[in-house]
Aminotransferase (Halobacillus halophilus), 393 residues
Amino acid sequence: MSKKSFVSKHVENLKPSGIRRFFDVAAQMEDVISLGVGEPDFVTPWNFIEQSFHSLEQGYTSYTENAGMIELRKEISTYLNENFQLDYDAAEQVIVTVGASQAIDLALRAVVEPGDEVIVVEPSFVAYVPTVSLAGGTPVTIQADADNEFKLTAEAIEEAVTPRTKAIMLCNPNNPTGTFLTKEELEPIAEVIDKHDLVALSDEIYAELTYDASYTSFPSLAGMKERTILISGFSKAFAMTGWRLGYAAGPSDLIAAMVKIHQYTMMCAPTMAQHAALEAMKNGRPSVRDMFESYKQRRNFIVTSLNEMGLECPNPGGAFYAFPSIKATGLSSAKFAEQLLHEEQVAVVPGDVFGESGEGYIRCSYATSLKQLDKAMDRMKRFVESRTPKTVS
Ligand code: PMP
């Protein structure tokens, strides 16, 4: 008798993450330098950890309010105001979540109805398309133009909009390309979003990691606050991936809808992590600044090295990823990554896992020490030279 599968068709049809599949192979190998995973190499600053310990010592081991500790929501609201000139009411317009990941999931589930289309700009963070589908929506992908440094344009949105479009996922600075959009570049995007009455889900988790120009938060643009859910968290700039803490801010009705889902599915974000985050908000600035300076130095080093070895790489304005073209080698992204891993033990992510327009590119995370980066670049250079002998003088 054949055994029927109890897995829902919906879930069965989701593709497993291309990043994970690749890193399971890398994990079995020795002496691998990983430029693969998108997480800081820094340990969480000690004062954040210490405050979390203290909270446990003091017996803070129960649930918090569903939306998160009010002291933390107040600090987040102040932080958004001081850094991005945003004005959110801590009690009504901020929710603390289990990573930015849960904020994305909640935001989508709060706005999407069956059959609604949600625009996702590729190359994109690998979670967007599957979370749109899991929320019952239809992901509609736009391919950002490599010749325009993968910058999203209002025209590209205009072409993708249909009467069923409900929302758009924005990510600035972008994972995986590191592309950064300035205020002037965001303004026409805001206009088109307004014209078509869309909700913007603005993932700003890398907002602190912008290197060359000041950051404009999407909801700070004229008319956008009423139609944007701002998504962010502590994983990246605060080096807190394992604490699983993020947040969203937005219009009261949308945040209330997210809290409703959250209270039934998660109850609240981890209490001890909320205490660490409170310290991060109150006294985290110097540590964030130091890590920022390291990332900036590493970015300059990796971008120069990649270009020197013949892998064309525009200077990424933000996040901690370089996204060079590997077209000069004649290899596909998958072959490049696979052969580089096996021959030189350097792990990068093939660009096609982030969407169609990522083919011909690789993602190199520079959230690793300069020493390791230096070694990785030497190995990669040797690999590239072996594939492109004509370019070697
Ligand atoms: N958004 C983007 C763009 C990311 O790159 C990531 C992590 N790779 C996340 C969200 C998820 O972050 P968190 O750890 O806070 O869930």
About this structure: The two ends are 66 Å apart (CA to CA).
